[in-house]
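Need the bound structure for pyridoxal-5'-phosphate, inputs here:
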Amino acid sequence: MKNGNLTRSGIQFEEPLLFENSTPGRKGCSFPTWKGKKHDIPPALARRQPARLPEISEPEVIRHYTRLSQWNFSIDTNFYPLGSCTMKYNPRLNEEVARYTGFAHVHPLQPQETVQGCLQLMYELERYLAEISGLSAVTLQPAAGAHGELTGILIMQAYLQSKGEKRRKILIPDSAHGTNPATAAFGGFEVVQIRTGRDGILTPEVLREYMKPDVAGLMLTNPNTLGLFERQILEVTGIVHEGGGLVYGDGANMNALMGKAKPGDLGIDILHFNLHKTFTTPHGGGGPGAGPVAVKKFLEPFLPVPRINMLPGGGAASAGGGPASGWSGAPTYALDFDQAQSIGRVRAFFGNFGMLVRAYTYIREMGPDGLQRASELAVLNANYIKARLLPHYHLPFGEGTLHEAVFSDKKQKDFHVSTLDIAKRLIDYGYHPPTIYFPLIVFGALMIEPTETETKSTLDQFCDAMIAIAQEAQTDPEKLQKAPHLSGHRRLDEAKAARELKVRYQF
Ligand SMILES: *Cc1c(COP(=O)(O)O)cnc(C)c1O
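Answer from helper R.:
Posting the output first, comments after.
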């Protein structure tokens, strides 16, 4: 076992597989002996060889998983400045509310009159997200941002079909997140990449070149992945609309805009939220997400079903005469499957309901002023990091940074030190590296997003580490090229890891 001499500096991840700790004959639990006859099991289903499971004791299993859980790098343990991902702290209050038995133990197939509170929560969350986005109607079904994008693209397609239009192309700026072109292609559109202007934003001049009659729409992220507000957005969305197209807004960066600007007012027709980014629901490790989609009024008929309706005055008729009908005067919430133009379901039941409860709790806890303040502090924190690191790192697009700052390794290149070296060295200092080599239009990008939930002292410690690394690049470049030094593993051969995938344990 390698666990005995664990050192606690740098990020440590080292744990043998359960299979590697297997000892023949060792048992973790005891079952009663099988008293039936052999032929009780149909021969086709009977095992010919014992299952190849690790043979280990119960304490070994518990320790294995407990150690793994402790070695997980998370926002609850450390600063996690992953750009574009909005790794903000998840308030414990959200967790407490999500665990209320009325939410946690409800079954999605229960009769509607027994889940009125859940329906009310979803209905109100839709209204809040509509208010924040400046759009009319919302679906909560999509399970992630990319899934929201797909929902939006399907809505766009259904809308164009309803008008008998055959537009095949979607315009996407070269600064976009990779999910945007992937979604458009998956939805059956042809992707046309358009170039970002010299100051990092989309210009009306360039857009006009591409806005042809076969263009279905534009997918735009605002603020974009350089952390910059699209200053020409009103003209940009105007050009798309004049040309008969729709504007899809990637709302992953709403953390910079809450209470400051409404995408609907900026000409966005369809927008997805990432509740697991902006609205503090837990995030990372492939856990559940939520990517609600908001649309303008004219697109509402195309939203996924079921819709959630509020029937004012306790409309007991459609609630089926359950307890809700006894609450005289109270609104009743009812599911509506009857939408002829709907794109249908995009997810079983109602999406990741637990995420919806957390986001709802967060919004109610913060209130409009609190959400606005969160965006202001997120922008302030990113600009603080930008100001402290600017003397040490190259910042290709510096004008108007909002919630994240994108540096490059241009200054360190002189010493043969790259973004990857800087990221690996940060591990020695105990930090999760920021997002690297994205967006693609910044060579050697280091994309830092602190979020509003970090204190100035945390930001200072991180900046101190980044500045120390910039100095090491000049004095001891080899140290960076060979980093990390304090982690359980030295630097991996990433090309080999990608080409020779080992996804299965060999016995
Ligand atoms: C995170 C992100 C997405 C994708 O969202 P997921 O929830 O990860 O699917 C799309 N666009 C941008 C700009 C993002 O940051």
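Comments: Confidence is low (pLDDT under 50) at residues 1-8, 315-326. The pocket of pyridoxal-5'-phosphate is lined by residues 84, 144-146, 177, 179, 221, 225, 250, 252-253, 274, 289, 291 (CB under 6 Å).
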